[in-house]
Amino acid sequence: MTDPSPAAHQARSAPPGIPGLRFLPALVAALAAAWFLGFVPAVARGEVLTWAVPWVPGLGIELAVLIDGLALAFALMITGIGAGVFLYTASYFKGDPRLTRLQALLMLFAVSMLGLVLADDAITLFVFWEGTTVTSFLLIGFDHAKKEARDKALQALLVTGLGGLALLAGLLLLGLETGTFRLSEMALMGDVLRASDLYLGILVLVLLGAFTKSAQFPFHFWLPNAMAAPTPVSAYLHSATMVKAGVYLLARLSPALGGTEVWIWTLTLVGAVTMLLASVWALRQTDLKLMLAYTTVMALGALVMFLGGGHPAAVKAAATFLIVHALYKASLFLLVGVLDKKAGSREVDALRGLAGAMPLTATLTALAALSMAGFPPFLGFIGKELKYEGALAVASEPVFVAGAAVLANALMVACAGLVAVRPFVGRTRRAPKDRPADPPVGMWLPPAVLAVLGLAFGVFPDLLLGRTLIEPIATAILGEPFALTLKLWHGINLPLLLSLLTFALGLTLYLLAPRVRRALAGAEAGGLPAAEGGYDAALSATKGVAAWQTRVIQGGRITVYLRVTFALLALLIWGAVLTGTGPWPAFDIDVPLLHWAIVGLIAVSAVAIVLTRSRLAAICALGAVGAGVAILFVLYGAIDVAMTQLLIEILVVVFIAIALLRLPRIPAGLPRRWGDAALAAALGLGVAVALVAVLGGDLGRELTAYFEANSAPEALGRNIVNVILVDFRALDTLGEIAVVVIAAVAAIAALTARRTKGRRP
Amino acid sequence: MELILAALVGLLVAAGAYLMMSGYLVRFLFGLVLLSNAANLAIFAAGRLTYAAPPLIPEGALAPGGPVGNALPQALILTAIVIGFGLFAFALALSFRAYNALGTAEMNAMRHAEPVPAPTPTAAAETERPA
């Protein structure tokens, strides 16, 4: 779980290119962010901007875009944090030939993510949703030479991809139920949806998609494993943007699906469990990046929990915390990357006393961590106060929710200390690298901007953030206009007291951190159940079933292949017969004795071929079958067919006779194969019954009538069958001739090819 | 008559399938021929039978005088017979070649493309690894 070492690649020269080109992605993202900023005044006034073009008109799928508070907030995070991350990446991977690939993938991801949050059409949303899944897979596995990175990438792909499939099903059901694929129209039909019989099914499928994407328990394990990706990727995808796609989806569909008992309980419980487990496990980590990953899972759990509450105060908390978390978490990830690069390690115990050598890094880390811990006057403080306010307002279980929030936040305080204090304080400097130093501007500017924003928003919350973004976000989530004010100082109330309790608890946990970690490690060694075990078991079970199925069905025995094919055919035919409806034909077997005799001859001959061990008798019987069929054709007016049948039948018999002289005898005393006999009987009976069923239906004779009416006037032919073959369907006949020629060429090739050496056992 | 043919088709299919599953090249070829015949008869019967009235137009007329045999299935069967023969001829040549190259007429013994995993421990590990 170490970052790829660019140094190893620096030996190879970077590809030639325009100098400064590596900063282009950052520039593009910054321009996009500025463009999106231009929408803020309109959205803050409560406007919702839409734009749509037909995409797949036949299926009613549109490329519809909608910009409301929620979409705009995400778009700003994607482009704004994106600009910072791209700039950081250009420095972080400077001189590394893989930089171009990384930037291309990051841009691809940014576009997918933007499409996801801007989409108003459910199908468009899903397409971009899968786009983020795939780019996330490629980015986690960026260091593809390492097996570990590939495994983790696959794990993330499978978990989020399966969730994506569930989401697709859920969205399609939503579309069927509401009659529209516009998310904005679905949002207005909440009452219809909540009363629908399909509601529970839709909810389960959508929640599966959201929970896997946003790493909720028990699907949380893929996110810490995704830290196999390079640090900028972790900062961007796996903390600030992509993992919030599930949260975004829940927020977006909240007006359509939210508010029911099952919604409230599922989201509150799953979110709370995720939040608590993740914050405990965060403290157990020694790798700072992993620790941050677990705190991200914690934040996602908190967001889900508050979206479940449905109370305006809870929604306000979720909307604020969304921004808070994106700002401090992205900057902390980037700063841990700086530590890794400039001090040589991310291990909490390997770093000490670096403040003197890296003063700027220390300051910035402290700024971001103060917001994470929720100290005033940072935005994190407001976020935390709102969380407590929201938790206390949750109608169902305020004590449980608030208690969980306090505990999780205390653990956040401890983690913030471990990230921002532990590596920098102390008298003796300790770092794996000889000369730790502050990074170049490209690597400190992005986290600096994010951290300072966290402070600025905290000082002027209502002016900069409350009216411009939080209010529109909350309006979009609640589905109705919602006015709020963000304040730094709420007076002395219960949330403030809870805050003080949090700080005290957090400080204690920070001081006890090594002991807590040891205790947790002991618990883990003692066999604490890990959700990842389920993933591993499911994966190996799938592989096991695939191997078993290949052994059984495709084991290389031709008779088995034939049995499987015939059995499937029989199953399909019987399925069609048994599920079909329609009249049976009248029972009519009043035919001349001669016809009976011919049918009897064919039947007896066929049975004889099966029973006889004499090759000569079998060939004779085969000839009798062919001749009998030809006679049937003659009797019922198919003279051309009969002539062809006779000619071909003669050829077949001659060929077989020649070949049999050279092929070995069938060994005597073959066992009767009762299983095969039963299968053959089932198939034969099925075909017979299906044919009878066909005879019970009406025969559409339009084509025949057309050919009968047009053969003479148009094609000047009196033999209708011949006219069809050589005139109306002449191209088919040409194809038929081609098939025969190809078969003949192939047969000649097979017969005249030289014997391959060494093939004979 | 169609119902009788339906029964006959069922019998031919069953016999053909049984022969093809026997695992011996010659019997496989017999089964293939029976199956082709069964398919042709099935198309014929499904198009309904008309006794002794070929789909011909009398000289000087523009359409058949009365009800005649259904021309469409007949055209289909003609094609099917020829294609079936092509398939049979190729299968025959291939069988012949396989017998010459592999030295056996038992289809299950032809394991050149998918060899039987040897029971030695190393080879067993090789094939079991995907599991």
From TrEMBL, chain A:
* Topological category with respect to the lipid bilayer: Multi-pass membrane protein
One Pfam family, please name it: MbhE
User: Cellular component terms, GO, for this chain's entry?
Assistant: plasma membrane
**Residues of the MrpA C-terminal/MbhD domain:** 601-665
Indicate whether Ion transport appears among the record's keywords.
Answer: yes
GO BP annotations listed: monoatomic ion transport
Q: Any coiled-coil ranges, and where?
A: none
| Keyword Transport attached | yes
Q: Which residues form the MrpA C-terminal/MbhE domain?
A: 672-752
The NADH:quinone oxidoreductase/Mrp antiporter transmembrane domain is annotated at 119-399
Lineage top rank: taxon = Bacteria
Q: Where are the transmembrane segments?
A: 21-43, 63-90, 102-119, 125-142, 154-176, 196-212, 263-283, 290-311, 317-339, 360-379, 399-421, 441-460, 492-513, 560-581, 593-611, 618-639, 645-663, 675-696, 734-753
Q: What is its main location?
A: membrane
Q: Which compartments does it reside in? A: Cell membrane; Membrane
**What would be an example GO MF term here?**
antiporter activity
Q: Keywords for this entry?
A: Antiport, Cell membrane, Ion transport, Membrane, Transmembrane, Transmembrane helix, Transport
Query: What range(s) does the NADH-Ubiquinone oxidoreductase (complex I) chain 5 N-terminal domain occupy?
Result: 57-101
Which PANTHER family does the entry link to? NA(+)/H(+) ANTIPORTER SUBUNIT (PTHR43373), NA(+)_H(+) ANTIPORTER SUBUNIT A (PTHR43373:SF1)
What's this protein's name? Answer: Multicomponent Na+:H+ antiporter subunit A
Automatic annotation (TrEMBL), chain B:
Positions of transmembrane segments: 6-25, 32-51, 71-94
Domain of life of the source: Bacteria
InterPro entries reported in the protein's UniProt record: CPA3_antiporter_subunitC, NUOK/Mnh_C1-like
Residue ranges of coiled coil: none
Which keywords annotate this record? Cell membrane, Membrane, Transmembrane, Transmembrane helix
Q: What Gene3D superfamilies does this protein's entry cite?
A: 1.10.287.3510
Q: Any idea where this protein resides?
A: Cell membrane
The principal localisation class reads: membrane
Report how it sits in the membrane.
Answer: Multi-pass membrane protein
Query: Mind telling me which GO cellular component terms the entry cites?
Result: plasma membrane
Q: Which family does it belong to?
A: Belongs to the CPA3 antiporters (TC 2.A.63) subunit C family.
Under the heading NCBIfam families, the entry gives:
PRK12658.1 (NF009301)
Q: What is this protein called?
A: Multicomponent Na+:H+ antiporter subunit C
